[in-house]
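Q: Hi! Curious about what Peptidyl-tRNA hydrolase looks like structurally. Here's the sequence.
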Amino acid sequence: MTDETGPWLVVGLGNPGREYADNRHNVGFMVADLLADRVGGKFGRQRRAVADVAEGRLGFGGPKLVLVKPLTYMNLSGAPVAALAQFFKVPPGRVIAVHDELDIAYGQVRVKCGGGEGGHNGLRSMSKSLGTKDYVRVRFGIGRPPGRQDPADYVLSNFSPAERKELDFLVDRAADVAESVVTRGVEPTQNAYHGV
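A: Let's find out. The predicted structure is below.
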């Protein structure tokens, strides 16, 4: 039985370094930064894992969030996530991965628990290291690349000027979705946000 008062591990997936900061692939970091601001947490290096970690509570006396930005590059994100899940005693059902999603149109945010990784190397690494796919995913739609652009190049490119006009609003919505999963659960969150 899981501890209903235990912390939640919210993992923003991305790549460390200024050159990646505005990439589509780094939207998980953007959401984690916003959540840290909301809970009054400050990111700092965690000794037990190659990651930046911030901690805080949702509201006064609310659920504890452990916000994580792995610093291992996307393909190796799983090891620090698993180490921190073990250290903070967080079961996979209370781990939320926030990531970019090619198979969802830009402007849409979706949530699901478990399932495949859809070719996303950060999720694949997390599933392998956690030993399960049964964790929550907040999926930030970035859409498919235009024309014949390689998806790998597309995710490592910056948002277009047109996309950037909406980006802050959408990062805010993704943070709302992550908070809703913590406070209300996956299904009520799907009902509230999937029609938007």
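A: A fun detail: The chain has six helices and seven strands.
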